[in-house]
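Lab notes, practical 5.
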Amino acid sequence: MRGVMRRFRLLARGSERMDETPLSHRDRDPLSAAPIKIPSDRVFLAGLIVLGGVYLALIVLMILADLAHTDRESLVNALRSPEIRYALFLSLISCTLATVLSLWVSVPIGYLMSRFQFRGKSLVDAVLDIPIVLPPMVVGVSLLILFQFPPFSFVASAVVYEIPAVVLAQFTVAAAFAVRTMRVTFDQISPRYEAVAMTLGCSRKAAFWTVVFPQARKGMFAAGALAWARSMGEFGPILVFAGSTRLKTEVLSTSVYLELQAGNLEGMLAVSLLMVAVSATVLIVVRLFGMPRLNA
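Output from the prediction step:
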């Protein structure tokens, strides 16, 4: 027993001496007494920059190519077109409605999926991601078939190939992205805050509205911006489920398709640049308001 205690004391003294040793001596190799050479990270960082820079350059070059292939007159003529103006107006309205509906469902779903464990949760989680991984055309075809069965068939004439179909098609896909964002947001909020509030007499409902909801506002803004931008770029489901009738169900994404079908390359590029400008504006606003960093 005394031998064990003696060894322990020697080890403790050795660690104390090591702590008092200067860093320059501690970093030396005990065998060669030569400083340890740390390999340079320049090659590694250069590889990361090159790989990331290729994709960044691709995005910038695509936008520059669009700008180089059009002129100011084409842009002005496209904006003066009644069809393009109607498509822009309908896009702004439908994307906003789809975003509001997405937030209405993404907040409760994200909270439930983040806070509660139940049987079949993995299956529910997979189902919520289906609109993200499905081909866009399949979403449109599925909606079109769905409205052939009751009770949806009773209102099919007022929805299919009408403006409500545009909003529903955008909402179906955009809500999936909003749900994912809100779940990550609630995952980052510690459940301890709710537990403390409930121990002080709050119900779960009161704890949610007074403790959790204020902390989730930035996440809601991020989810809304993501849903809005995703709605703006939606094409496949709208084309199948709502059609692309001029001055009726035409939005900016389908305007690009119609201009291409008509052989109007200048008009197509003008609408494309308009969509790029709108999307960039949304992203800038999100950055200015402080979009939180979400880690999936």
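Observations recorded by the TA: The two ends are 53 Å apart (CA to CA). Residues 70 and 266 are 6 Å apart (CA to CA).
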